């Protein structure tokens, strides 16, 4: 089967083509699924990357998981006349949410891997003394982050490092918008207290 790649813009002829590719993939045709992958990979990868930023390795892993799950589930996919992109986005959102839900039950390594926080939050320094002082401040911040609860670490990561909205954070964590706002307020309060204790 020789299928030429096309751009991500899905017009009427592309819908028909996508429908044919889905039907072939549902019959187990790996080339048809590979073409569906090429059609949708960019959008799915960008969606996941925004939600797990700045961890590009995690984004790549979750993107691969999405397409692995899609390949396994495509026999049950029902074509409704629109692009399968929405279905893939749903799988992607669930993959990200599942990742962060399980993060609360495993030892969070997030605090030890926040080198990007240093880049984003560290002040601009112009001499050796300022460099030492800014690294001490970053060490205090790392220590303060390790002192708050895992769920508080997650909400800080999603809201501020991942730049997610309250609604996106709520969906990712499997909770309500109000619960995220409360958790964020408590996390910031605990982080402030822990940071002040670290620098005292």
Topology record:
Elements: H1 12-26, H2 30-52, H3 56-73, H4 85-103, H5 115-121, H6 128-147, H7 150-161, H8 166-173, H9 177-199
Overview of the molecule:
- The protein has 200 residues and is an all-alpha fold.
- Helix content is 72%, strand content 0%.
- The chain has 9 helices and no strands.
- It has helices spanning 12-26, 30-52, 56-73, 85-103, 115-121, 128-147, 150-161, 166-173, 177-199.
- Helix 6 (128-147) crosses helix 9.
- The longest helix is centred in the first third of the chain and has 23 residues, at 30-52.
- It is elongated.
- The termini are far apart.
- Residues 1-11, 105-123 and 131-136 have low confidence and may be disordered.
β-strand number: 0
Portion in helices: over 70%
For the sheet with most strands, the description reads: none
**Could you tell me the strand content as a percent range?**
under 5%
Q: What structural category do the secondary elements indicate?
A: mainly alpha
Using the CA coordinates, give the radius of gyration: 21 Å
Q: Report the end-to-end length measured between terminal Cα atoms.
A: 69 Å
Put simply, the count of helices is 9
Write down the overall geometry: elongated
Question: What do the pLDDT scores average to?
Answer: 75
Please sum up the structure shown.
By secondary structure, this protein is mostly helical. Helix content is 72%, strand content 0%.
Defining traits:
single chain; 200 residues; mainly alpha; 9 helices; 72% helix; elongated
């Amino acid at each position: 089967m020789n299928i030429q790649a096309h751009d991500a813009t899905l017009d009427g002829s592309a819908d028909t083509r996508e429908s044919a590719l889905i039907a072939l993939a549902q019959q187990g045709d790996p080339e048809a699924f590979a073409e569906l992958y090429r059609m949708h990979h960019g959008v799915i990868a960008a969606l996941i990357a925004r939600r797990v930023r700045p961890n590009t390795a995690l984004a790549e892993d979750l993107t691969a998981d999405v397409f692995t799950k899609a390949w396994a589930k495509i026999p049950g996919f029902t074509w409704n006349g629109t692009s399968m992109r929405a279905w893939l986005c749903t799988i992607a959102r669930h993959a990200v949410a599942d990742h962060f839900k399980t993060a609360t039950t495993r030892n969070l390594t997030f605090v030890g891997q926040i080198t990007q926080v240093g880049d984003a939050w560290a002040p601009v320094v112009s001499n050796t003394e300022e460099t030492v002082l800014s690294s001490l401040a970053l060490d205090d911040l790392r220590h303060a982050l390790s002192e708050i609860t895992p769920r508080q670490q997650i909400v800080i990561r999603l809201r501020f490092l991942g730049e997610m909205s309250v609604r996106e954070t709520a969906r990712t964590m499997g909770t309500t918008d109000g619960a995220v706002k409360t958790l964020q307020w408590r996390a910031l309060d605990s982080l402030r207290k822990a940071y002040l204790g670290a620098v005292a």
